[in-house]
Specification:
16-stranded antiparallel barrel; disordered N terminus; mainly beta
Amino acid sequence: MRLLLVFIIGILSQKFAWAGSNAKLLEKIEQLERRLLEQESLKTELQLLRDEVEALKAENEDFYLEDEAVKSTTGGLTFGGYVDVEYIHRNERGVSRPSEFDQHRFIFDVAADLGPKMKFVSELEFEHAANEIAMEQAYLDYAVGQDLGLRVGSILVPIGRMNELHDSPLRELTERPRVNRLIVPTTWFDIGAGIHGEIGSEDFPVAYEMYFMNGLQDGANANQTGTLLDAGSGFRSLRKKGEGGSEQTHNKALTGRFGLSLNSQTSLGLSFYRADVGAFTNAGLVQGKRVFQMQAVDWERQLSQRLEWIGEYIRGDVDRNVATGTAGYDFSGWYSQFNYILDSEEKYRAVLRWGATDTAENITNGGDVKEKVLGISYRPNSNAVFRIEYHWEDELNAAGVALDNNGFVLGAATYF
């Protein structure tokens, strides 16, 4: 009897436990059902919103075009560009000059696809708060084949590395190397036509460009006491920037570049430029030919996960001026730069650059420059950069005395 009573009590206790568990399970099921109903309601509201958006698009279809691009009469347009601003506090040939802010560049890019084989690319530059305006690029590309394209218009001269990769947000230092101002007059562009593409294999691709262009032109200096090239102080003043009617010789410049990818860490560029710049008299009259040519090698090497090495070496010569009897001369310049990533997020970099130029190896003048630069860059995102740097720079005068251009430069730049 006692055993039977224990058995009955055990069954009743299990029944009451199951009843309690069932109540909890029922409560959970009800909660899940309520959540599902709420989700269904949200789905319904979301679909209604989507329907409203589609209805608005249908009513305003002119503003909602394919690929979200603005449409012209020929195809999709894309807009972009970049802007930079600088603060400069440097000596000038041994003399302290006032510090200044400079809205150095505002660049506006417009490009368009003109069909399956054609595209248009342009770059309009406003410099120094729009005091200088230039159409740096405005060309048509036509794809003849997979590895060959035709290009015509205002084109960057493909000499060296910096001239083609000259965008301010790409650089870790604000000021360009001296060799890219005195010898390669970056940004260097002119009107011409030529071919571009890629050859080689998948393991060893070779990108190439080759153009005939309007070339550099010599001419009399402001005082008509000599020509620009005879001074041997650099070639920046010889640029014509696509100016119409500037050609005074029939021979066009020939220029080209071959870009080699040696491996995943190393790329190498080989480039050249050759032009008849004209043998000018002191009065500015052309009296024959005068050949100007340069060759360049540039490189980019990833030395480690954090350390990058880039640089250029450029060498060339100028023929004798048969109009004035001034001897020809050789010139050369180079820079070497190391960029080191300082943090795990790759936002900060320490930068060290040094280099030298000699714009005429048998003439002592302001084209003889040695520079060292130490800087820090900060990239809050992939489009923008803030930079601070100090320059140690010596420039020779005609007597061979070194005059310093030392000082600080701060800069900020961003794509938009």
